[in-house]
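Message: Just now I want nothing more than another pair of eyes on a protein record. I am handing you a single protein, as its sequence and its fold in token form. As I understand it, each token names a local backbone shape. Take your time, and here it is.
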Amino acid sequence: MLRISRLRGIPRALSFAAIVLFAVAASGEAFGKTRSKKRTADFDAPITTNLRSAPIAPPVRFFTINDVLAKHDGRKAAGATKFAALNDGDVASDATPAKIRPQVSDEPFGLFTFRAPEGLLWVKWRAVEQSMRLEAEAIERCKVDAEACSAAARRFVGIAGAASTADPYARVKSVNRDVNQAIRYVSDFEQHGVADRWSSPLTTLAAGKGDCEDYAIMKYVALRGAGVAAEDLKLVLVRDTAVRQDHAVLMVRVDQRWLVLDNRSATLFETADVRHFMPLFAIDERGVNLFAAPYAARPMHESETDLMPAASLEMGGGVSELPFLL
């Protein structure tokens, strides 16, 4: 027995603390002996316990991701060892769970977009943007003096002006109809002798003809002039799987719904009506953006391949491997 008299010269508080620590150590030693006996019985294996050491922790169990997936699916993984069941609330990590990203975005088709790599589409869009800025000056002058402007500028001011006083839905419908009627569809090969060329609105109106990109670009600029916000407009490049052709349309957001303006129809469609469209690129004031879509192999749009060598396309250059992104 420990006697207080043997602790002469030590403050009483320290003496009391020493007694408490001695008692805790003694009880811990006894608890370790009990746990060691129970652990030996549980694992059917002898455990050598040092009576003066801390209790031995149970062996660590490891499991693979295949084991977890198999358990989740209610099946047994081939060659998998037995492991503790994972309940819905269990987490196989001590890290803070990441916030779950919403599965639907406010972009067209409910898909997320990300900035496309520099390439031919960026070159074409920047060239068109520069032409549109120059034409904007001519259009503003035409609003002041209609007699001093070109026929193309006068026609464009009329299209945008007629739409500017209408309600949002009627405005979009007016521009879609008037632009479709203002020019005649021809391919770029027929008009320019090249695979793909994008033209600015006044250039297209002066020629009186153009292809699907030219229609979409003119509608984009006309609706901006009619008062539609830039973030509500997207020039969208798609693969039309119904006819197996690349196509371009303008998409406009009205009352949180994306409407599709197609040069092949006066009707305004919603994205649910064009399930045969495989969205590839969305182009707007921010630049060229790729749709983050679940394509194992994304077909390249004609607008990004018109200058590629034919041999490259035949050898697989027309297919771009993209991951599923959400």
User: Anything to note?
Assistant: Residues 1-59 form one domain. Residues 1-27, 34-52, 79-92, 309-326 have pLDDT under 50 and may be disordered.
